[in-house]
Design brief:
- There is one protein chain.
- Helix content is 29%, strand content 31%.
- The protein contains two helices and twelve strands; from the N terminus they run H-H-E-E-E-E-E-E-E-E-E-E-E-E.
- Strands 1, 2, 4, 9, 10 and 12 form a six-stranded antiparallel β-sheet that branches. A four-stranded antiparallel β-sheet has the order 3-11-7-8, with no helix packed on it.
- It has two domains: 65 residues, no CATH class; 125 residues, C-terminal carbohydrate-binding module (Jelly Rolls, Sandwich).
- The longest helix has 29 residues.
- By secondary structure, it is of the alpha+beta class.
Amino acid sequence: MGTARSRAECKPHLVYSAREHVVYMSSKFAPRVINFDDRREVLLVFTAAICGALLLIYVTALIYKLATLDSEEVVSGPVTVSAQWSEFIPQRPLQPSKQTQEIVLDVDPSEGLIEDNLNLDRMQLANGTVLHPQIQLLDSHGNVFDAEVSRYPVPSRYKNGLSGNVTNLPQDGVFTKVRVRSNSPVRLSRIVWHCHNGK
């Protein structure tokens, strides 16, 4: 009888303890509400919010800068250029949009353009042929702008590219034609109008 009574007396205590545990766990994991009467807590939350907003603005600006750093427009697809001028008309007029504008002759990989970062002015194919390409940009009034052509350094955006850098272009200019010729025939994968910021 003594043992049975002891167990009966313990049951209410066990039930109470279980309820107490539930209340404790509920209060522990309940969403925390800011105590606006505590100036330090309010200041801490406010500072954290400002830092989060600044970080978000920085990341957004960085993504935007990287996304708009370069722009390119394909002027022509695969083509072979020779000693005669080849004229290309882009689907829409070309316009300067960055600090630097250039016309890129993307040489077909099968031509084996030699990689030589120490002599970018020497544009040589695997068969020994040294290229002397010429590139011209024409605006809507017929004015001609000559490009300075050199080998693209590697590694770079255009591994097999010849860069036709065009300087002193009017920012409001509209260019409607591209002319290309080479002392020796060469196959191109494409011709690109490339605008970018920085050097």
